[in-house]
User: What shape does this take?
Amino acid sequence: MKLISLLLASILIPLNTMSQTPPNYNESKVPALHLPDPFVSEKGKLIHTVEDWEKTRRPEIFRLFESEVYGQLPKDFEAISFEVVKENANPFSQIADLEEVNITVGRNGKSHTIRINFFLPKPQKGPFPVILLINYLPNYPDGKLVDEAFWPVRELIQRGLATASFHVETVAPDDAKTYQNGIISTLYPEQIGKSDGLKAFGAWGWAAMRAMDYLEQHPRIDSKKSVLVGHSRTGKTALWTSANDPRWAITYANESGCGGAALSKRKFGETIEAINTRFPHWFADNFLKYNGKEESLPLDQHLLPGLIAPRAVYYSSAREDRWADPKGEYLGIQLGSRIASEIYGKKAVFEKEFEEFEGPVHLESVGYHIREGAHDLTWEDWRIFLEFVEKNLD
Ligand code: GTR
Assistant: This one.
């Protein structure tokens, strides 16, 4: 199932983008980069201290991402309840407890229910660190809960970690025509039609926050040791979620590319026009203004890790995944980690240029690896990332 969808994706990319400018894969054609300075405020004030950052510059940058890139992520609701149901067999019953949790959220007399699947190591009581994966792969027709190649529950449980996942379809369908048919039209209809209104990434991020609401009150979970993981489209989502929700200790975006880890102004591989054309339901409508006009963006993705700092951020790339621009992803974290190092004093300086290093680079609160192969979240990615988790979850 997964293989077919990946093959289809790689076949579809060139076909779908044929009517637009063909993607650039030539480093010598990357334009000279003029990137906004994280350390100078909109009024020209130099930003040196944590207070300058948190009171002045961070809110400016957050507002730019909210209005120009991702759209709003509303935080208000009136009621939330959790119900543990038993619908599916536990595939790991020897080593883990399974909780299938319906999270119901109410606002303005309406409600919406999302589902998380949650495994906890047994027989230990915990409290356990927890990893939440945002899943978008096609639902399994046989109703099984886990594709182990993508979500290695057994290995996580064996390492003493609890792990949960939800599917984006239970929140907002991943479809340009129907994406509003979840929480957007039910709970937040006033967002529809706004140029900076809630779109699919914001909706999925909202669901990750509701999952955290559950994890936070769970007696067997140490929610201070929480890790949010997303691949590709949900890697982009994970980053925006964590910029909105300080409860995540570590945020991992695997091969999140355009609109995630990678610098848009490089225009290498997937461009803003390409992503907005294929996936108009992901980003705020304002993002359309930058189709073919990356140079006029008042920000770039190197500013995103700073919104998460001093909490930890981890990126990874795959060498053949040129569509996601591995070098642009590396620059995103290399430049983005300056907030962690220069404002928060972390040992977080990426010394080497992209072309020189072999990696992985695991620093204090930031990390990166690149592996051979194509676009996918693989066990190799998890294994290397888990080494970073061990060092950064204390
Ligand atoms: C690609 C898309 C990317 C990325 C990915 C995915 O084809 O162009 O932006 O998000 O799909 O989520 O699988």
Notes: The chain has one domain: 3-73+129-392. The chain is about 30% helix and 20% strand.
